[in-house]
Specification:
This protein has about 280 residues and is an alpha/beta fold. The chain has helices at about 1-10, 35-50, 55-75, 75-85, 100-120, 130-145, 155-160, 175-185, 195-200, 205-215, 230-240, 250-255, 270-275; strands spanning about 20-25, 165-170, 195, 225, 245, 265. Bound molecules: magnesium ion.
C-alpha cells in the first residue's frame, strides 16, 4: 500500500494523494483583478480626455504612479503592506471592516482618491474640484462594472466541491475582496474565506494559510494551494509543507518561471487542478 501511495505521488509531481483540501488565492487566480483595474482605468481616462483634453495613456500611467506614491505616504502604509492592499485598490475600496487601521483608512479614503486624481491630472492641465470628484467616482463605477471570475473558476469549484473541502486565502481589504466574491457569484459556494484585511496579516506570512487549514481541519501536508504569485502564494505554501500549483494563464508567463522546487507545478488552466486531484486523469 505504501509503495502504491508513493507511486501515486510520483505521478502527481509530489502532490499528496489523496488531496484532502484545496486552498485558492483569489486575485488573478479565481477572479480577474489587475486586468480589470487597468481596463477600468483606461475607460475612466478616456472620459477624462473627452472632458479635459488630456492624453489618455499619460493620465493612466500618472494615476497609477500617484496612487502608488500617495498610498506609500499615508500613515497607514505599514498596515496596508502587511495585509497586501494594492495602491490601485485604494481607489475604489470603502475599507469597511474591523479594527483601528481600517477605521483610519475610511476616514481618508475620499480625500486620498481625489488627491490622486487631482495630482495626476495636474501633471497635464488644471482641473476643478467637481471634475476631480466625478472622475474619481467614475473609476469606482468602471471597476464595479468589471467584476469577473475567470471562466474556469466556477465550473472547477462546482465539480470539486462534492469531492474535496476548499477555502480561499486572499490579501487585500475586506470590502474589495468580499465584493469580488459576491459580484462574480463565487460566494454561492460558501467557501471559508480568510481575508488578510480582516485578520490583520496577509500572505506571505503563514497565519492566513494556517487559519484556512484550521477552518478545514486539514494538515498542511495533505493540502494543495493554488495561486498566481510565487512570492505570496507558492513559496509560503511550500514552506508550510503544503503542495502548490502556480497558475500561469499566458504561455509567455510560463517561459520565465523558475519553480522553487519541491511539491509544486505550473498549470495554465484551473481545469488542470482536477487532473491533479482525480486518480486516473493524469
Ligand atoms: Mg493573486
Amino acid at each position: 500500500m505504501e509503495r502504491d501511495r508513493l507511486a501515486n505521488q510520483d505521478q502527481r509531481d509530489g502532490l499528496p494523494s489523496p488531496v484532502e483540501a484545496v486552498i485558492w488565492d483569489l486575485d488573478d487566480t479565481l477572479v480577474v483583478e489587475r486586468p480589470a483595474a487597468e481596463a477600468a482605468m483606461a475607460a475612466t481616462c478616456r472620459n477624462a480626455t473627452t472632458v479635459l483634453g488630456v492624453d489618455t495613456n499619460q493620465l493612466e500611467q500618472d494615476v497609477f504612479d500617484e496612487a502608488k506614491s500617495q498610498w506609500s505616504a499615508l500613515p497607514t502604509i505599514d498596515f496596508a503592506r502587511r495585509v497586501g492592499i494594492a495602491s490601485w485598490e485604494a481607489l475604489w475600496a470603502t475599507f469597511e471592516g474591523p479594527g483601528q487601521e481600517l477605521s483610519d483608512l475610511r476616514a481618508v479614503r475620499l480625500s486620498h482618491r481625489q488627491a490622486v486624481w487631482r495630482k495626476a491630472i495636474e501633471r497635464q492641465t488644471t482641473v476643478d474640484h467637481h471634475t476631480v470628484e466625478e472622475l474619481s467616482e467614475r473609476f469606482v463605477a468602471e471597476r464595479f462594472n468589471r467584476m469577473e471570475a475567470y471562466p474556469d473558476a466556477e465550473p472547477v469549484i462546482s465539480q470539486l466541491q462534492p469531492e474535496v473541502p476548499m477555502a480561499i486565502v486572499t490579501n487585500g481589504a475586506p470590502d474589495t475582496q468580499r465584493t469580488k466574491l459576491s459580484l462574480t457569484g463565487l460566494d454561492r459556494f460558501g467557501l471559508p474565506t480568510v481575508v488578510a484585511g480582516e485578520i490583520g496579516i496577509g500572505k506571505p506570512s503563514p497565519e492566513p494559510f494556517l487559519q484556512a487549514l484550521g477552518q478545514l481541519g486539514v494538515a498542511p501536508e495533505r493540502a494543495v494551494f493554488v495561486g498566481d504569485s510565487l512570492t505570496r502564494d507558492i513559496t509560503p505554501a511550500l514552506n508550510l509543507g503544503m503542495a502548490a500549483l502556480l497558475i500561469a494563464r499566458h504561455p509567455h508567463d510560463t517561459n520565465s518561471i523558475i519553480l522553487p522546487g519541491g511539491r509544486c507545478n505550473v498549470i495554465t488552466s484551473l481545469h488542470a487542478v482536477q487532473q491533479y486531484l482525480s486518480p486516473g486523469m493524469d
